[in-house]
Amino acid sequence: MEHLSSTKIFGGLQSQYKHQSVSLNCEMVFSVYIPAQSDTSKVPVLYWLSGLTCSDQNFVTKAGAQRYADQHGIAIVCPDTSPRGEGVADDADGAYDLGLGAGFYVNATQTPWSEHYAMYDYVVSELPELINANFPIDGSRAAISGHSMGGHGALIIALNNPDKYKSVSAFAPIVSPINCPWGEKALGNYLGSDKSTWLPYDTCTLIKSATSQLPILVDQGTADNFLKEQLKTERLEHASKEAAYPMSIRYQDGYDHSYFFISSFIGEHIEFHAEHLMSNN
Q1: Structural domain total, the chain
Q2: CATH code, domain with 128
Q3: CA 163 – CA 141 distance, rounded (Å)
Q4: pLDDT digits (tens, 9 = 90+) for 209-264
């Protein structure tokens, strides 16, 4: 692991590192915020997954989350959104919704994607092992959150691994990639035409079969231009009600899909996670 940079902010330290990933078979970069409370004890951790076209830096520089993370004594880890580097497959037409910056947090099974695109394994296993071994973090107290494609990633990872996380939240998540153009393109390429292999990566499907329940908070802006075609939040409302899976789904009037939306409510999301990360349950 190579240290790239560090900057003090709100009493803590915002840093960036790179390492050779076994899961992804390439070099990866991630960012980590460590609050001042880590000087005296290990701190809980929130994993943040970003959306299409983003890297590890978008959330770090735009969300303003460090202020709230320091108040609650929570570390924040931000991985990149896909494998990168020479030889890593990309969309043949250079489209933004497949390939580089669009890993969709799945384990690809189809050529040429399967050589590098295993973001699910990276986020669930490899990155937490690296973080827990090298930083003053209590890995038994972890939460996960994300935006758009990253909101999809946070929800499906938490639902598939409820023992690993205390809580999960999302901003404008893709709640059912099996039913929207972004998801159909990505999952069709990464996983192939057999749609049964897509189901473990579909939040609405996972909600219906969940055997345990996590605290879930979802915020969706009503002025989001992707809401109707890509995000389809009403499907999550229906699935959660049908499965009697309690969650807080909030529509925020007039907010769009941007980081202005995220920065407006990230403090509430970190407070939500803090309640569960700091409890004895």
Answers
A1: 1
A2: 3.40.50.1820
A3: 10
A4: 998 999 999 999 999 999 999 999 999 999 999 999 999 999 999 999 999 999 99
